[in-house]
Specification:
By secondary structure, this protein is mainly α. The chain has a domain at about 20-80. It is built from 2 helices and no strands. The longest helix has about 35 residues, at about 10-45. It is elongated. It starts with 8 loop residues before the first helix and ends in an 8-residue tail after the last helix.
Length: about 90
């Protein structure tokens, strides 16, 4: 087997810079999409209805997340092999 070398500081810095550039590009794209959505809502003139719809949707999603949390806690304990003493 060939020995695997660690990346150099220069390689790490280069990859980090590339990742930062990609994140900044995505942020610009998201901001442009948010601005476009804002213009569309203003154009349609239904910002109040849209806000109500968003609030209802978010409330429904929060309710679903609350329902899942007890199950997730149960699954995590069973994934650990349980805490029963088999001695």
């Amino acid at each position: 087997m060939a020995k695997r070398n660690k990346p150099t500081i220069r390689e790490v810095a280069s990859v980090t810079a590339q990742l930062m550039n990609q994140v900044n590009s995505m942020k610009r794209d998201i901001n442009a999409l948010v601005g476009t959505l804002d213009f569309y809502i203003e154009y349609k003139g239904d910002s109040t209805e849209f806000s109500e719809h968003i609030n209802k949707t978010l409330d429904a999603q929060e309710g679903k997340e609350d329902e899942l949390q007890p199950n997730e806690a149960h699954n995590e304990s069973s994934d650990r092999g349980g805490t029963e003493d088999k001695g």
